[in-house]
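Structure in, sequence out. Go:
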């Protein structure tokens, strides 16, 4: 999920009345973000260096298995000393509320950069690939596999990228809190072995790096957008579409995106390929000009904001805002929580829980030819094997049948699919029957927007998936066992799906929150409707 405010980006939010003022001896100055795993704060060392300190949520703190794994992951993370990673500086694994502190990175995430400035030049992408590959060398050298490498987990600093968010998410992966079958990771960036529940290895992160680079270069995901089930199906069964990627990158990225882990290059091979790429001329350096000027100016603004906050007294805001950026080095894309305010318009209903959903799909591998040390010329659209690239075909239906391992239930057929809708403010709502935006209080089956959350009709039920895949059948099962009747934006990060069932029970819509601006601004969703077949 992306959140933005009008005008300049804000990297921080004031502390709320419920926030502590000190953790582990570190004085807290502001919120950097909050989400399902915990709250991230801007703090400073006694010597004045800024750090990102993440406090784990109470439900994880109360789980002994999480604590055990968290302590092990923090110990591993402390041994990671790469220049392109955010260094762990301190932790409190035995504290009543476990916490982890890393070096603060004054810059936006790569996701925010692409959203705000568009695709990046070929030279910038090549340098990012080299920097992130070096970060992966450090991570893998410590015996850690990241498993959720994506643009939201790469921060952009003046001297290169920083890979963040390893440790806490991995510690939660095997606890009961994540739900049976849920895998840590973001669907669009998962490798085939990760999507199918097989063993992850360092090659899993190389696949994610290939997806990341293709997205940053072309502005679109190589396996498409839309429902997570469809994206994962294409990851496992189809070749990537690199038609929007810079031609000089396609050969390199195609090898990263090989279906079989053994066919992907090692990070060291990626660095060598970038160094010898014609676009760099042998100069692999993060010097002035490696970023477009607009991005460079934005990065510089983050550092000035952190300095101003450090110079001011600690504040507690009456109504904290949702920041647009400044994700902490200790977290991968969590956001600041909007403060609750009185309900307006239609009545709110209380949430009662979420249910994890798993996807099991059959693995179909395709070999990638071994990476050659010399990249193809910048104008050549062939891969490293010398064969021309042809965009991969797309399935005729945007909803391919993907077995979920669940018992058979009612059959559903699509009505409308992947309708991208934007409600300008709370005076508009989403008409789920028609798949369009209408003035508030006019639709019968609707999804309204009110003070940082979605509001449902009292005669509709909903379910929020803890994973990245949600089918109509899974939706119905989830509603019957763990219905959810309010849907706060901050619980729907990373476009995790939720669904709403119609009052007559014959239709469901599957929704992903794409973007929500602060202070009641526009909200964008992607919606697909499915009707039960008679």
């Amino acid at each position: 999920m992306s959140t933005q405010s009008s005008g300049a980006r804000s990297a921080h939010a004031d502390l709320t009345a419920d926030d502590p003022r000190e953790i582990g001896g570190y004085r807290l100055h502001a919120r950097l973000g909050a989400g399902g795993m915990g709250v991230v704060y801007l703090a400073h060392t006694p010597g004045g260096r800024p750090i990102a300190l993440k406090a784990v949520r109470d439900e994880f703190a109360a789980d002994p298995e999480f604590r055990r794994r968290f302590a092990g992951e923090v110990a591993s993370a402390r041994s990671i000393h790469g220049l392109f990673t955010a260094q762990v500086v301190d932790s409190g694994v035995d504290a009543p509320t476990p916490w982890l502190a890393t070096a603060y990175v004054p810059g936006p995430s790569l996701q925010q950069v692409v959203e705000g400035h568009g695709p990046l030049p070929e030279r910038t992408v090549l340098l990012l690939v080299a920097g992130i590959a070096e970060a992966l060398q450090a991570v893998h050298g410590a015996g850690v596999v990241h498993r959720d490498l994506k643009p939201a987990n790469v921060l952009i600093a003046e001297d290169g990228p920083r890979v963040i968010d390893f440790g806490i998410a991995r510690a939660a992966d095997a606890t009961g809190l994540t739900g049976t079958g849920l895998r840590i990771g973001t669907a669009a960036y998962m490798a085939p072995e990760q999507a199918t529940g097989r063993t992850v290895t360092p090659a899993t992160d190389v696949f994610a790096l290939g997806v990341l680079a293709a997205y940053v270069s072309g502005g679109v995901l190589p396996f498409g957008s839309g429902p997570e089930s469809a994206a994962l199906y294409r990851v496992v069964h189809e070749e990537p579409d690199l038609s929007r990627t810079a031609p000089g990158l396609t050969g390199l990225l195609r090898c990263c995106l090989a279906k079989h882990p053994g066919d992907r290059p090692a990070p060291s091979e990626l660095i060598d390929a970038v160094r010898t790429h014609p676009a760099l001329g042998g100069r692999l350096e993060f010097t002035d000009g490696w970023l477009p000027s607009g991005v460079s100016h934005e990065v510089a603004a983050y550092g000035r904001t952190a300095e101003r906050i450090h110079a001011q007294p600690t504040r507690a805001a009456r109504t904290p805002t949702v920041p647009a950026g400044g994700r902490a080095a200790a977290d991968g894309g969590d956001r600041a929580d909007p403060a609750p305010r009185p309900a307006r318009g239609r009545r709110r209903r209380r949430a009662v829980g979420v249910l994890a959903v798993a996807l099991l799909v059959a693995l179909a591998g395709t070999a990638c030819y071994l990476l050659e040390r010399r990249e193809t010329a910048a104008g050549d659209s062939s891969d490293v094997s010398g064969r021309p690239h042809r965009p991969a075909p797309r399935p005729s239906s945007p909803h391919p049948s993907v077995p979920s391992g669940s018992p058979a239930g009612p059959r559903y057929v699509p009505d409308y699919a992947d309708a991208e809708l934007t409600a300008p403010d709370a005076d508009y709502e989403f008409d789920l029957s028609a798949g369009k935006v209408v003035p508030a209080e006019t639709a019968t089956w609707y999804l309204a927007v009110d003070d940082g959350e979605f509001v449902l009709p009292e005669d509709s039920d909903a379910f929020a998936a803890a994973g990245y895949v949600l089918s109509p059948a899974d939706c119905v099962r989830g509603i019957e066992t763990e219905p959810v009747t309010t849907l706060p934006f901050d619980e729907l990060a990373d476009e995790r799906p939720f669904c709403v069932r119609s009052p007559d029970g014959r239709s469901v819509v599957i929704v992903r929150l794409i973007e929500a601006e602060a202070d009641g601004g526009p909200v964008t969703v992607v919606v697909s409707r499915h009707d039960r077949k008679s």
